[in-house]
Specification:
5 helices, binds fe (ii) ion
Length: about 160
């Protein structure tokens, strides 16, 4: 039997929050795969530094991904877990693949910034419309992590 989540958030609102979390989970996966791709395939003058930076970044993303999936479970949802589901629900583009360092860093930065913009709207909804203080707080923390990564990447672009 499936025990219902009874924490003072309506079913309709729970479902709205879960949709936001599934979209974010998918976006994180797209950025994670792209970050690993460029960790492997980065080339150019700052190869080793960016190679290491991207490793640090995908480790942060892995942790974030797990926390988002577990937040979905805490709200009674089933966390998406297939590549197909991630591709279907992401708000980012999977490609295109870039072969030059500046383009690679620019693309990662642009994805992090796009996710930050989506999260800003998601957070406002979770707060004002769905009245879920914990998800509002949680996603604010996620957004702060992306702002930090965006700063690091932006600094390579002069
Ligand atoms: Fe590696």
């Amino acid at each position: 039997m499936n025990a219902k989540v009874n924490i003072g958030i309506s079913e309709k609102n729970l479902s709205g929050i879960i949709t936001i979390l599934q979209n974010t989970l998918a976006d994180e996966h797209v950025i994670y795969i792209k970050t690993r791709n460029y960790h492997w395939n980065i080339k150019g003058p700052s190869f080793l530094e960016i190679h290491r930076l991207l490793e640090e970044e995908y480790e942060v993303l892995v942790e974030t991904i797990d926390q988002i999936a577990e937040r979905i479970k805490k709200l009674g949802g089933r966390a998406n877990g297939t590549m197909k589901e991630f591709i279907d629900s992401t708000r980012l583009l999977e490609g295109p693949y870039h072969d030059h360092q500046t383009e690679q860093v620019k693309q990662l930065l642009s994805d992090h910034e796009a996710l930050i913009r989506s999260l800003r709207e998601d957070i406002a909804k979770c707060d004002k419309e769905f009245e879920d203080a914990v998800t509002t707080d949680f996603l604010t923390g996620v957004m702060a992590k992306h702002e930090n990564i965006a700063w690091m990447l932006r600094s390579y672009l002069g």
